[in-house]
Each structure stands twice: as structure tokens, then as C-alpha cells.
Amino acid sequence: MNIAIIGYGSIGKRHEGNCLSLDHNVDVLSRHEKRRLQRDNYDLIIICSKTSEHLKDVKRFKNLSDNFLIEKPLAANYHDGMAIKKLLDEKKVRVGYCLIFNPLIAKVKQIINKKTLGDVYFAQIYAGSYLPDWRKWEDYRKRYSARKDEGGGVALDLIHEINYAQYFFPDKISEVYAYQSKVSDLEISSYDLSHFAIEQQDRYLTITLNYFQLPAERHIKLFGKRGALFADLINKTIEIFDQKGKNTYNRALDFDSNQMYVDEIRSMIKYLTGKENQRDILGIDQATRDLKIVESAI
Q: Cα–Cα distances in Å, from 22 out to 15, 27, 49, 261, 276?
């Protein structure tokens, strides 16, 4: 396939390498690298620009392809997300929630579906890390993550957690209680702490995200009628305990984290060629719902 990549930061570079490894033709648009698109039509456009530029880039390139993969979050705010949805209404679109292709997330989903824990009453999802360590070769203060006006902020950066929480538990959300603020001494204008409490008919979920934690921690805790699950996304481990507190499952998963990005591209190509149906959790409707949850904290 002929693929265009708009934006050439770390994720754009990763997508280029993976697309080339899968034998696709790739053009890149990058001001810094002085690279330009060479065609007037593409089988797929991948938008990897700053979050605040997604709407502008969709407007600019919507006539160059019928198919789009837009990096998460879909947009800097719900209003822009709905505008993108309208612009791409007749096209095939997915949003780049790569963690849906993470083997640990897939395994937790399988455990939930098998009712190993019984009915899950409460889920605690947590991701805390130190923004200056994300890319030590860059000044974190100059990254879009640090700038509220460029679509930065921990809830947008780590919107994966909001998305996969609904992948685990797709039931209707009845209420969202939320808090979002800048609380640390990081030199940023964006929010560095977000906390969401989500209510469903028979379940509560909390999602807590921050930019200022050392050491980093990213985990999932589920508490159900028949036991509890602890999953560590950094160390790639899953444990299950029964009602008596006995450890009944303890597994460390061994996988290359880049593989989920490769699988994301492969799945997208299958979707475009009719070999796979749309996955609702990756669709534009879900992405706008995710943005609406983020904005409930504002």
C-alpha cells in the first residue's frame, strides 16, 4: 500500500519503520526533515502531528485518501473531535490506541470475559510517570505535552487508560466525577494530575494519571465477586488471587513492545482490505466519547 505519514516525531518515525518493514511504500511530510508528500492519493494516511494540529491536518489532507489512522487523542478537545468526525464521515477511520494490541491488555480482557473474577465490582487504573524522563534527549518544557494550548496534559497524553477501561467494561456510563489540575513544580502550562471516577450500573472505575511520579507505575487492579487481579504494565506481569487471598495465577509476559504498533498497522490494513471488521473501541465514535470524559474534568 501507499501510505502517507503526517508529522515525524517519535511516533511518526516508529510508524514509518514498521510500515516499511511490512513492505508498504511510505511518504512522510515533515517540516524539520524537509520531506514532502509525493502523491496526490494514498491508500492510507497516518496523522502523527501535534494533537492541536489534527483538525487542521484532516482538513488539509482529507481528499488525499479514503482511509485514516489518527494518533490518539483524536483531537485536543471534544469540539475538534466532532469536527473531525464530520469531515471524515464517509471514510474508514481508526484512532491509534496501540494498547488495545498490547498482549497484557488482551490477556486481562480475556480473563474478564471468562468471568474468572466473577462480576467485577471495582476497577482501579493508574499511570504515573515523570514527564522529563519521557524523552531525556528533549527539553520537556518545549514538548507539546507541556503546553495546554498545543493539546498537552496528562489526561490527553494518557487517554489510553480511559479508552482501555471501556474496552474492559463497555457497559453504559451513567456518571463521571473528575478532577484535573496542575499541582507539581514542573515547568508546564498543561495539567499534570487527572483523576476520574466512572459509574456504571453495577460497577465503579477510577482512573488516576500524573506527570510527576518517580519511579513510574502503571497498573490495573480489578476486584470481583470471586477474586482480584493485579496487572503491571511496566513489568508485564499479571496475578490473580481468589477470595481467600490465595495466589492462583502468576504470569510474566515476554513480548517486544514495538510489536503492538506492528500489529496495529497489520490490523488497520486488514480492516481496509475487508479481512477484518471495524473494532468499535478504535473507532471515531469511541474516540469522541473518550474526549468527552476528559472534558468532564474541566
A: 11, 14, 22, 12, 18
